[in-house]
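Weekly modeling sync, notes
Attendees: AB, CL, MP (scribe)

Item 1: holo prediction request
CL wants a bound-state model with thiamine diphosphate before deciding which constructs to order. AB pointed out that an apo prediction alone won't tell us much about the pocket. Agreed to run with the ligand included and paste results into these notes for async review.

Input as submitted:
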Amino acid sequence: MTLTDDSRTGAQLICEALLREGVEIMFGIPGGAIMPFYHAMWEYRTQLRHVLCRHEQGAGHAAEGYARTTGRAGVCIGTSGPGATNLVTPIADAWMDSTPLIAITGQVSSAALGTDAFQETDITGITVPITKHNYLVQRAEDIPYVIKEAFHLARTGRPGPVLIDITKDAQQARTVPRWDQPLRLPRHKSARVLDRGAVERALTLLAGAKRPLIMAGNGVIQAGAAAELRALAERTGIPVITTLHGKGAFPESHELSLGMSGMHGWVHVNRAIQECDVLFNIGGRFDDRVTGKVSTFAPRAQIIHADIDFTEIGKVVPTSVGICADARATLACMLELAPAGNHAAWLSRIRDNQREHEPHQAYRRRPNTPTLMPHDVFASLDRSFHRHSGYRVVTDVGQHQMWAAQLIEWGRPRSHITSGGSGTMGFSIPAALGAALAFPGETIWVIVGDGGFQMTNQEIATMVQEDVRNVKIAVINNGYLGMVRQWQELFEGARYSGTKLTGPDIALLAEAYGVRGIKVERPDDADKAIEAAWAHDGPVVIDFRVEREANVFPIVPAGKSIGEMMVTATASA
Amino acid sequence: MRGARKVARGHTIVALLQDHPGVLHRAVSLLRRRGYNIASLAVGRSEVEGVSRMTLVVEQEDVEQVVKQLNRLVEVLQVDDVTHDPTIEREVVLVKVAAGGNMQSIVSVALGYSATIADVGMGTMLLELSGSPAKVEGFLERLSPFGILEATRTGRIAMVRGRATHSAAELVSDLVASTPAPQSPEQWLSQADGINGTN
Ligand SMILES: Cc1ncc(C[n+]2csc(CCOP(=O)(O)OP(=O)(O)O)c2C)c(N)n1
Ligand SMILES: [Mg+2]
């Protein structure tokens, strides 16, 4: 092959391919096997921003935070070996939560593959079960096509992670790129054509229902179908419940909104599921945190399940009507055909249920104590979210995550970001970094436990280096791995094995990073601290020293029916 | 022991795969993660270059979900559980038996099964048989009293009778040659409206 002026190194081709896919930012850490790419990206730095993270896990979650808030594919980078394995957790997280993520890893030179060369890890082998697809690229000329296909796969159909492992020699080799190669993928992997017959059958079922429910999941948000969902609910009068990831798909202030179902869902919501005669799940996957014991889930209901991924339909619960399509296409078609309806009697039955249970909802109120309760913090945060606009919230994993889901009123798609399927502690701070860079004009709040905070708080240093000013971190500091402690208290005779947790003085640590730190110990100080954080031009970390042994209620014990909810340590609803 | 060998029960799955490195790993990984045992696996070229054909036998009651997940893999062109279809199933076995004074009896077993005598060595005889899995099982059972020294089987291959049901050529011509236009960030965001709706 004769090399002309059009020739590029493989590393340059990575940059150009990323630009062609509309990438503007990527998160990563360099190392030996990925150095040629870093060398090349310097030339493209004005268009292609690189954010140096403090840990590849942080880079991966940052890319996820970017992806989850924008709907675009997030890009993260690591070197071979430990760099690549550090990306495994965010890749698994993106897989479980259907987040479009591109992970680019360097690999040892092709001649050294399989020799246990320095920092050689079989990352394509490791990530087979947690990626939509992955590639081991050994030739520079393959880079343009592979990157194009990878982005296509990551963001179409059910989005998800795709890993591209590129050997060092492929990054270094020069070639004349071909950008015009069309994608060649099996037809059935591409978007499916909506089956209108299935939609009609679904509408017939719904029209005949006396007690129908709509359950909205992540798919509604991913498809940008919140407006269609609202229109359908209003047209048909069918009440709407959401999953954890469905939060934001339907405004919780709406009269048809019932709230969240599942392990920590509200009692009246889980009861409604147990009573309904048709359950229309749009864009959710009947996770076990949603269904509880499957054999007792929605025992009176015929199930309509709309999901973009055909493997989900019928996977968990027997389905009367399955619709395999994008949530927006499904809902738009329904809106074309659905007659107006009204379910006032059913809705008032649910509301009566809710009112009847109200006196038993001690868990929604703060107890009479001078101690700072988690509830005080969440009430303050919720008040501040009603006062301000232009914000998104990223929560971590644990008790605080469930309180945030329960006690804050959610309304907007892509404003509630959390790690659901994987439940990855340490997700929130780096994910907020990605969200903050995607939306510099908004305020990104983090709600994190002291356990999760101590897993990935080093990304605060990244925020400082990148001059990210719009992140506010609320640490719900209870001195425990609280959610596990709660299970130990409720189900294991309060044997707090391995759950008591100490930590640094978080406010001081924040100051050491060069950001503002505030400590809050009294209920009366919560509002003030939160307002100060909103007002401060720069990252703020608030250390909320809360009651150590507060619990999240209701809770469906693992393996139990969602009809059996504990509302206190001793009482069930 | 007689009758101890049974024809593997379970499901026969036929799949057409793009002939790429790693594709087998991806497919098999879906069974491995569930702890399923693969009774047999036979892979080779199909009638079209670039497309491999695989026959997989899994001893499992219910394979519906795993077949769907196989179908979801990017490089899987087609996959079906053909257990209940009318199929022709074949296996090839090479078997080496101890042959001394009993040579004549071994030859008569071989003749009875229309097996080929592929090689005769010092005190050994190497037989080759192609047939249905049941026939192969029966053959091995008949030989076992002579003393089987080695046996190797290809694993089952299967084809549905009658019209073409797994034609690689058709699938390859069906590969979508679509080039989605590259999108600017603005296009992408405006397309996904609702993403940034305000409170
Ligand atoms: C990486 C990881 N390790 C362990 C767990 C198991 N786990 C789930 S919740 C939890 C406790 C979280 O503690 P903390 O961050 O302090 O939040 P809290 O529950 O106290 O609000 C643990 C350890 C997990 N989800 N993720
Ligand atoms: Mg804690």
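Recorded for review: Chain B has a mean pLDDT of 86.
Action items: CL to compare against the apo run; MP to circulate these notes.
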